[in-house]
Structures are given as C-alpha cells and as structure tokens.
Amino acid sequence: MAITKKDVKFDARGLKVAGVLRFPADMDESKKYPALVCAHPGSSCKEQTAGIYAEKMAEQGFITIAFDASYQGESEGEPRYIEDPAARVEDIRSAVDYLTTLDCVDENRIGVLGVCAGGGYAANAAMTERRIKAVGTVVGANIGRIQREGDAVKTLEAVGGQRTAEARGAEAMIVNWIPRNDEERKQAGITDIDIVEAVDYYTTPRGQCVNSPNKLNFISIAHMMAFDAFHLADKLLTQPLQIIVGDKQGAFGSYKDGHELYEKAASEKKDILVLEGVSHYDLYDQPEPVRRAVEKLTAFYNENL
Predict the structure, then answer these.
(1) Checking phi first, is residue 144 left (phi over 0); if not, alpha (psi -120 to 50) or beta?
(2) Contacts of 3 (CB under 8 A, 6+ apart)
(3) Interatomic CA distance for residues 252 and 242, integer angstroms
(4) What is the pTM of this model?
(5) Hey, what's the torsion of the CAs at 275, 300, 53, 139, to 10 degrees?
(6) In this structure, how many other beta carbons lie within 10 angstroms of the beta carbon of residue 154?
(7) For residue 257, what are the CA distances in angstroms to 30, 133, 254, 276?
(8) Measuring CA to CA, which residue among 230, 289, 303 is closest to residue 53?
C-alpha cells in the first residue's frame, strides 16, 4: 500500500502556510509516529527536492510535512518572493506547532530535515526550538555566507536605494535567483557546476514547478546578508546531527558549510557523510545519491527519534 498525502495549511506569524502532510502506508491510527519537518532550499518549493525527501521518509515510516516558505509558492505573505531567514526559521517552528496538534504524531519524536539553504535554516531553528529532537541536513548551506561573498557593501547600498525608491512609490524589484535558462547561463559565461546544475534542475522538466518561479524580491537580500545559519551552534545546537554532502564542490559551498557545521555543532552525537563523485544537485533528485542519503537518514532518525 502506498503512503497517503494531505494538503494542509498551518499558521506562521499570522500567515497561512501551505504544506503537504504525508503518512506512512498501513498506518495504525491508534499509534503515535515520529515526524519530520522538511525544509526546502532557497528559491524552491514543497513539490521539489524537499517533497522528494518527505515522500521517501514517509515510506520509511515517518509522518512528514513539506511546505512552501512564507511569502512564496502557495503560502501567504506580502510582498511576494521575499526570502527572509527569520521567517523561514519561524516557518519551521510553526510546522512543529502544527505537528503537535495531530493525534498521530509523537510530540517527543519530532525531527527536522533541510536541503541546501533549508539545511541551514533547519540547524538554526533547532538551536532555539528544543521540541526538535534530531537534525538532518542534505547539502546544507549557510545562505548568509553565500550572499556575503562578493561586494556585500555595494549590494547593500543598492538595496537601500531600492527601498528608498519603493518608499516613494516605485514597483518592487524582482530579480532571478539563477539564469532563466541554459542559453542565458552560457551567454553570461557561467560554468560553475552548482549554477549549471541549478539551471538544469529548476528551469527544465527535471524539477521545474510553478510554485518555484525563480523570482526573488531584491530588498530581501539584506535579510539574508545579515544572517549566519550557524551562529551559536557551538553553544545551542546540541541535538543529534546528521550531515550529508557530496564531494563535487561548487559555488553554493555546501561541502564547506557541511564541514563547518560539523566542527561547530555542540552535538555529542554528530556525523558527516561525504558521498564521493556526487554533486550538490545530485542529492536533490538523482536516484542513487538520494537512495544513499535516505538510507543514512532513516538509520539516524530511527536511532534518535
């Protein structure tokens, strides 16, 4: 029997967040089950890689919830296309709130699983959300570190100028996270493996989804710039931690960030799995890398939830 899915909405700071709840096959409604909150990457949505992991972990016996970030996808929030780390972290806390209201969920066995920027948000949320009992990251990245690379001050000055323009009545500036297609990437001379594979994942039938339109509200770059996903991990991230990365490194830096988080985390039980010959985006949807990640995560959550 296949797992079952249910479209749900839950509250996060006054906004309705759209999610998909998944239940294991042959679930016994008289029992309580461990549950996982699955956080998607920046620019992504619940139907993409977070949904893939939510599906596969439900097949392993966990109740899972994947959801669109506030201000994005099918979730509420204005202005649209904002990427606000504080809101992303609060979304995770609010998803935990929601899970605790379900009779089928064991509130003492709730974990979090984040992919790419969602991995950074997952680790950050767990530091102050003690109801999260175990933390898993797949190619987890510190979105603040990514945004600070390059001329951060110049970018922030441009954000300030745009805010002034909008205060005076200008339209919001909506930019793209990545090139809109492979031709645009080639014209820009971009050859980095993470960008090449991001374009292949997000802008082709491989992973393309209407709820992930490759749009970013420019002024929210300031929110990301000031955020450090791993700040205080040496003091507050004490839950069991499983990190999974590939060894083919690119611009998003998940290999580097994964090792930094491993070194910083105060967790007494922590592990980092490095998959050889595997890239950042291989771990989004490619069958063999995802299978290996799910195998490791299943053992981790079974032991720690």
Answers:
(1) alpha
(2) 22, 23, 24, 25, 55, 58, 59
(3) 19
(4) 0.97
(5) -40
(6) 9
(7) 41, 22, 5, 17
(8) 289
**Tokens (6 digits) for 296:** 């490791």
Helices (H) and strands (E) in the chain, counts: 12, 10
Cβ-Cβ contacts under 8 Å for 284 (sequence gap 6 or more):
48, 49, 52, 115, 116, 139, 201, 207, 290
- What type of residue sits at position 198? A
Burial 20-57 (b: 16+ CB within 10 A, else e): bbbbbeebeeeebbbbbbbbbbbbbbbbbbbbbbbbbb
Which amino acid does the sequence have at 183? E
pLDDT in tens, the chain (305 residues): 589 999 999 999 999 999 999 999 989 989 999 999 999 999 999 999 999 999 999 999 999 999 999 999 999 999 999 999 999 999 999 999 999 999 999 999 999 999 999 999 999 999 999 999 999 999 999 999 999 998 999 999 999 999 999 999 999 999 999 999 999 999 999 999 999 999 999 999 999 999 999 999 999 999 999 999 999 999 999 999 999 999 999 999 999 999 999 999 999 999 999 999 999 999 999 999 999 999 999 999 999 99
Rounded-to-integer distance, Cα 135 and Cα 130, Å: 11
Using alpha carbons, select from 114, 99, 105 the residue that is nearest to residue 34: 105
